[in-house]
Amino acid sequence: MRNTQNDPFVVVIVGAGPRGTGVLERLLANAAELPPTRPLSIELVDPYPPGAGRVWRAEQSPLMWMNATAENVTMFPDETVTLEGPLRTGPSLSEWAAADGACTDVTCTTFATRQVQSRYLRWVFDKIVAERPANVSVRVHATRAAQIEGGARTRQRVWLEDRDEPLTADVVILTMGHLDAVPGKDHRLLADFADRHGLRYLPCAYSADADLSMFRPGEDVLMRGMGAAFIDLMVLLTEGRGGEYVEREDGRLRYVPSGREPRLHVGSRRGVPYRSKISYRLAGDPAPLPRFFSAPEVDARFAGRDRIDFWADLWPLMAKEIAYGYYHELFTAHPDRVAIPWEEFAAAYAGLDWDGEPMCALIEASVPAEADRLDFAALDRPLRGLDLPCSDELQEHLRDHIRADIDRRSDRRHSADLGAFLALLSVYGQMPLLKCVAGLPVRSRVEDLNGWWQSFFEYFGSGSPGTRTRQLLALAEAGVVRFVGAGMCVEIDEEKGVYRASGANTPDTVEASALIEARLPDADLRTCTEPLLRSMYRRGDAAEHTLAGDDGYVHRTGLLHVSPEDFRVLSRNGVPHPRRFALGPFTNIRQFATFARPRTNAPSFRQNDRLAREVLRFLGAREHAPQQVQEHGLRSAQEHVLRPAHEHGRGYAGGGRAA
After folding, report:
1. Element at 302 (helix H, strand E)
2. pLDDT confidence of 623, banded at 50, 70, 90?
3. Same domain for 307 and 173
4. Burial group, residue 389, by CB count within 10 angstroms (0-12, 13-18, 19+)
5. Where is there biased composition of kind Basic and acidic residues (predicted)?
6. pTM of this prediction?
7. 401: helix, coil or strand?
């Protein structure tokens, strides 16, 4: 256990999926600039294939697709990324596919299968390992980490599930990605009800791993959730059971059932599926972004204010930025649908507040057709106020809604929507850079910023490929999918032994013998099934990130609490461990994306670089003055982390997830 001058430094990375691979790439790239004084051994621990990890492994249905086009997926930083370390470039998914003879069907605009993405990720992993510095070794352990031991001044012992001896490490980095969770109280009640009455219930789970064999042909099945998880489950329960799609003369799809599908009754808070992916490119020039919502300018605007309000202060600026992208494309690409030149409109627009009457008057006078004006309220809640006499009319209304969405997202006449989407991405990218967010009341950060805004972003920008939406419409027209409406509510009927669902748009209800929670499990340190995190939490070596407001409002996020400055894991007492780091969606560093879009200065690359350099600096510093450096590291981390975490209304809250 004692470390000698001849032993290599050892870094253990728990989780070898895309995030672990990204951290590995930055460690190897930075090791050439910050070379350790001894050889470096990097040990990766993951029961799933390195590079791909669990979610992107090859062993899953070929019907599972990515939710981004191949040109918008990369594992390599480019010259737009603000790195402290050296830049190492590489191909995007589409560029890699173009050079791979077996992937000739993957183009820039292809939504590749997850199996193809798995091959790309494994290629990336093998490439960066092959190009590692001569004094660095990399080894993969195809198992799960069960426990970690070790103090601040001692090497760490990482126990593996199928090994008698632990891995001994100078530093441990946790990059496990999305986690499974033990069902909570409400879900257990629904599962117990199913057991008592011989029904079927599926709690939140990852679609590719869910056992769907329990759901019977023709059975009425309720599904709560209409996002990405719903689409995956829909595919597996229909086409995955032998159903087929036939192209109609009008270009629409017709679904031919196999007879083995259940009947799916779906609903959510909005009651509509996420907006379909846009299939066209801008018709005009890109808008210069950010224009009204850059982090430095927003922070300067609210400098000196202890409190800000999301709806009164932040949202008007965010909305003005998104609408600027929309109208820039509308005016410059479709001048026949506006009443004045862009330069005149832009000059007036810049001087007006988004939420004032003068702005409304400017837009109404400049954009004659109401259908060409951006209406956030109607876009966000398209079923609000809709009251129909029966479910059949609701089905017709929702089918019309989906047809209109398909047409709008595939017709370049509506390219202003793409302008809005690109501005939405700009706002999303600026959000984690804002210092003034600390002035939002905690309740608002939870309910407005991480709640409504994150939900709206995913609904507008993280929808399914157009083909999937066309398939959903075909299933609805075939009666395989039926819609419950907005505000879906599920009750249990002990007397009849059924689940019963209702929505806000019709008085009709539907009874079913099965219920699926069509959502991914929420990250929760207390209930996750990852043995390493559970053991750390029980011993107090890890803490749940909690936010507390001046009004007594307390929110337990369920996320692992790490320092936003250097990603060190905090204990229950708020002390950062100098040898343990964590990064990913299970931590309070919430601004992440599964994969980066090229040429966007993606946060994941910057995070990986900061973490890698912090690890290498720690290893180099402890070589020369280990005790003093470690003590200084503890003090400085406490100064940066503990003070803001314990001030009311000042706890760290990051952004959220992008697809």
Report:
1. none
2. low
3. no
4. exposed
5. 632-650
6. 0.91
7. helix
